[in-house]
Amino acid sequence: MDLFDSMRVFVRVVERGSFSAVARELNMGQPAVSKQIRALEQYLGGPVFARSTRHLALTDQGQRFYSHCQEILGQVESATRSFASGQEQVAGPLRVAAPVSYGRLCIAPLIGTFLQRYPDVRIDLRLSDHNEDLLMENIDLAIRIGVVKTEGLVAVSLGTTTRRVYASPIYLERCGVPLEPSELAGHNCIGFTLLEHYDRWRFTRGAHEFEIAITGNVTSNSSEAIREMVLCGLGISLSPQWLFAADVERGRVQSVLDRYKATALPVSAVFSRERRHSARAMAFIDFLREHLHVLPGRA
């Protein structure tokens, strides 16, 4: 068995979802494709597919092996192109992790433009409000908002994100409009628990600094959930400007305390030291630094 050939066949079967489709694509009989997969499973010591009469699905081990195969074959493809051209090509799979709202509103809209520039890259965008384990999840780079703990990782600054205090007209009519940071003590403030010191909001005005200990009857580790709670009039939040930009335009929420500047949050691209020579990861980071500043809420 040629391991690389079997990996290539396996990846195509996953992508096409059919042994027969891959057999036609590679101009080989379906029994030959099945034989390749059986030999691969024998080599690995377990099944990669959970077969049924209706569909073809990966086992958990098969899913992990598929991710590694994509990475390995992408590196082989990149190495081949590099040898031919004298420099590494921006090509192959790129796995990017990002917070849910930021990924949806700020990263996803830029991917089409990036792929126009680098059509040989294949992006897998993974959205989660929890910090992924880059090595365990085989992630090339992650976007992090807030202070980054870089133990064993490399962090590259992408800038900062502006924050404002937001509330719905319904809430403000019921509870009043805070005019000074100190007045937040009388409001139902919704804290975003994934940030350090989420229960203290900091502002500046000129040379003066203000730190307010907030109180409220709800917190959340999801910015999407906080947005929904603000929209329905439950409380008031200190959130990135991009999270509410569309809602402000539609009059669904409004910012308050605009005379005061809330502490901005750093935005970073984080990757393992093993990925620091990845041409596609570096190209994506450079692209983000070039384009993110045009989005709402960028400093």
Automatic annotation (TrEMBL):
Q: Does the keyword Transmembrane apply?
A: no
Q: Which Pfam family, just one, is annotated for this protein?
A: LysR_substrate
Q: Which family does it belong to?
A: Belongs to the LysR transcriptional regulatory family.
Residues forming the HTH lysR-type domain are 1-59
Q: What protein am I looking at?
A: LysR family transcriptional regulator
PROSITE patterns, A to Z: HTH_LYSR
Keyword tags: DNA-binding, Transcription, Transcription regulation
Q: Does the keyword field hold Transcription?
A: yes
